[in-house]
Amino acid sequence: MPDFSIVSSRGAVPLVTQSGDGEFVLERDSSGLGLPSESLRFAESAAGGGRYQGGRYAMRDAVLVIGVEGDTEDALEASLRLLASHVDRSASPTLVAQYAGGEKWSMGFYRTGGGEDVRSILPTYERWEFDIRCPRPLWVREAPVTVPEVNPAAEKLGLLPYLSALPVTGSTAYGDLVVENPGDVETPVNWRITGPGGPCEIVLGGRGFTVDAVLTEGEVISIVRTPTGWTVTDQTGANRYSDLGPAPKFPSAPVGVSTGYAAIVDAGAGSSVAGWFNPQRKMVR
Predict the structure, then answer these.
(1) CA atoms of 264 and 232, how far apart (whole Å)
(2) In the 8-state DSSP scheme, what is residue 87?
């Protein structure tokens, strides 16, 4: 079982799982930290019954039950005030699970209720129940997975029949992509393309996109997934979304190993394609 803590802009509060091991105890009757709920869509079928039309993970509602211990009544009050400051929405609190090997998985939350009454069971012990909501219900690994950088100029093409969106010429270069997702949820991959060369095509697991711009030496295009959608910018921060080819399908890394390729026309020694993503899990235990 991992060690838990609440990490916020004001620091960290370690949560132990056994009374007597620390001043903040994550009690076993905390709930809602297992599998997230799913919001699914179904449509009635004219032939009877219905059909599944897709879905998404819903926001996670959970209850954190935290016992707080102090050596004295004054120490208990100070600990309660400290905990309250860390779960306040202005502190951007995050619940972090750290495994013995050092790997950390985190999930942001907001307190929606609980903790209103301070009625001590014992003079130096208090039990607080916090209702929390996690807008992003999956656990995200803090250390990203990096897609090994590919220098397409290392292997020139004559003909490569599976290039779908580029004109295949003797100046086109490609490199193979191998991506391993150690999480248990398919996760979007971010990309960084460094010139010279172009257009560039990236395909992973059968989905892909092209950047039609011809990049100069050292010019960089970054394609990044954010909570509100995809951004395409260059090294100056300028929006380069208009440089994408038609109907881009930004690939995600499925669970396990997936393969693909990157190809750049007129690639040079400094040309490269690299990717990265933070794996996600439905639960930690």
Answers:
(1) 18
(2) H
**Bridge partners, 232 (sequence order):** 223
Q: Are 62 and 130 in contact (CB under 8 A)?
A: no
Question: Which helix (H) or strand (E) covers residue 265, if one does?
Answer: strand 256-265
Q: What are 178's two structure tokens? A: 């191998």
The residue to which tokens 């009635």 are assigned: 44
Cis, bond preceding 246 (omega within 30 deg of 0): no
Which amino acid is present at 224? V
Q: What is the 3-state secondary structure (H, E, C) of 60-81?
A: EEEEEEEEEECCCHHHHHHHHH
Cross-strand partners of 98: 3, 104
8 Å CB contact between 91 and 6:
no
| Cα end-to-end span (Å), the chain | 5
pLDDT in tens, 211-246: 999 999 999 999 999 989 999 999 999 999 999 999
CA distance 265 to 285: 47
Residue 199, preceding peptide bond in cis (omega within 30° of 0):
yes
Bridge partners (DSSP) listed for residue 6: 13, 95
CA distance 267 to 196: 6
Q: Which domains does the chain have, with CATH numbers?
A: 3-139 (2.40.30.200), 145-281 (2.60.120.860)
Q: Can you give the pTM of this predicted structure?
A: 0.87
Question: In angstroms, rounded to a whole number, what is the distance separating the alpha carbons of residues 15 and 86?
Answer: 12
Report whether pLDDT(120) > 80: no
- What residues contact 198, with CB distance under 8 A and at least 6 apart? 211, 212, 213, 214, 215, 264, 265, 266
Predicted confidence (pLDDT) per residue in 73-99, tens digit? 999 999 999 999 999 999 999 999 999
Count of other CB atoms within 10 angstroms of residue 20: 7
Order of strands, sheet of 3-8, starting from the edge strand that comes earlier in the sequence: 11-15, 3-8, 94-98, 104-108, 139-141, 280-281
